[in-house]
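Handover notes (outgoing to incoming on-call)

Open items:
1. Large ribosomal subunit protein uL23: sequence verified, structure written out, both below. Nothing else pending on this one.
2. Nothing else urgent.
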Amino acid sequence: MFNEDVIIKPVISEKANALREQDKYVFIVRSDATKTQVKDAVSKLFSVKVIGCTTMNVMGKIKRLRGRPGRTSSYKKAVVRIAHGETIKVFEGA
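Large ribosomal subunit protein uL23 structure tokens:
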């Protein structure tokens, strides 16, 4: 698996922006990606030093469409902590 395939997209939300002050960045990753693969992908793609990585599986929410129950897609989320003073430009809007 290539580094570009591990990370699907960054998460831009209020909670993710609050975590940036603690040098933590949130990404949606492939469901079969391991913590080691996520660490390597972030460090090589964004040229930063990764200190730690936490992953979690987010189950899809139950929704209704025209009276029929359904479920949104489940996904895997990774919170990556980088070295103090380093930033990832994707989140900075540059």
